[in-house]
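User: I'm curious whether this sequence folds into something compact or stays loose and floppy. Could you predict its structure so I can see for myself?
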Amino acid sequence: MTTFVTWMMALSVAVASTVAGRSLMHYFQLESYQFPGYFRTLKRNLPKVLLPGLVLAVYLLALTLVHRSLDREAVPALRVVLAILLLALSFAGGWWCATVFSVRKAKKPLVITARVKRTLVTMVIVYTALCALMAFLLPRPYLCSLFPVLLPLWLALAGLCAWPLEKLVSELYFRDAQRKLASRPDLIKIGITGSYGKTSVKFILDTLLKEKFQTLVTPASFNTPMGVTRIIREKLMPAHQVFVAEMGARHVGDIKEMCRLVHPHHGVLTSVGPQHLDTFHTLERIKSTKYELMDAIPDGGCCFFPDDEGICRELFDKTVKNKRICSIRPTDDADVWASDVTVSARGSSFMLHTVRESVACHTRLLGAHNIQNIVLAATVCVHLGMTLKQIARGIEKIQPVEHRLQLIPSAGVTIIDDAFNSNPKGANAALDVLAGFPGRRIVITPGMVELGAGEDKFNHDFGVKMASCADVAILVGPRHTRPIAEGLKEAGFPEENIHPVASLEEAASLLRQVGRAGDVALFENDLPDNYSEG
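Assistant: Here's the prediction. I'll summarize afterward.
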């Protein structure tokens, strides 16, 4: 009977720890189950991630001590009841910790996917084994109740134990998607990558291609191997003529893995810049990773570049495969270019040119940088045989992508929603758009992340530029936005118009207080829960 009670004690602690680790599992999922990112999140949120385990350990210690005192005098039947009651109360304690310490009002809540379920089962098994080991080896079995103190590390261990199974499952799905694509030799496959602009160019290209083709594009920001695998397996139909896959990367080799899945005929590079420097570490590694797409393009395919007068131009010049380049100004070697660009607070107009013909175009998209995105997409369409008339008709139909310079007019404060993951170039472009609006201009931002050692400098420069484009700055997260505030003050921005707040909810509340009819408010970036200070 003593052995039974000890095992039940170990199981109780294991189950409570599994349930209480909800916020940790959330962070693990937000970091795409990558251990380096998970440990960086733990470091940034140390008090938050340690508190649930500490509280649970104190609760379980008290609970097991009470159980021990009652169990001593109990008859065998009652000891079974007490053991079951211990399990139930432990579960309740874990649930309470999960509820109290979970990410409140999560912007991207934990999704209970099949992978999460498999990881939870692994956690119960691993935790039970470890707790049983502690219960049987330590001088006092109830000391296993201290197990949750290291809960963040135990989750990482369970994730590591689950990794071989996850690798097997993902490879099976991956190969199934490969087979499905291989069965469609007629399908035109296009890969899009870049440090930023991938999703915008993808949706612009989709709108233009629909003037001639039946298309399938990966939705939202589905740009990982498993995300794209899922779309291929679930959405690809015989009627589709073109498949467009967005290819994201946070580590060297990520694009190569995507190309192993898709085997694209054509590759589109949107930009190269200091995005995800915290994982790539150097700009050179970012360049080589993005170029993995062009390395994968076969004979008969084509590589597409924007002339940014920088890295993309450099990569175009070194490419010996079939290639095309576009520009938002006339150049000597551009295959497609724009001229007579006029940008306003309500949209843009321009002339689109090839070496043979030209057409007038209009778009509702905001910002000169979106003209570059449109011209890049148009270059692909020209290569695929579309006429400029078809392309211009598609350009007129382009809708703003959600959270990417999306204009939301109102009778009061007009909102420019640019809340998707920001970067230095995109943030500066958003400020340029804001500067084109009349009236008082307000910026709400938590700044930029994942920019490596230069992050503070980028945010400082963001603040300097903001000073010439805005009248009021609401900075979300006093600690992370300190460099922005310093840049604003350095540029002579009135200190009384700088408002640090703790959370996005507090920022929205302040906007309702200070905003008035005719104002324009730019929401620039919205940090995910694993970066948020609030």
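Summary: The first strand starts at residue 188 and ends at 193. DSSP finds 20 helices and 15 strands in the chain.
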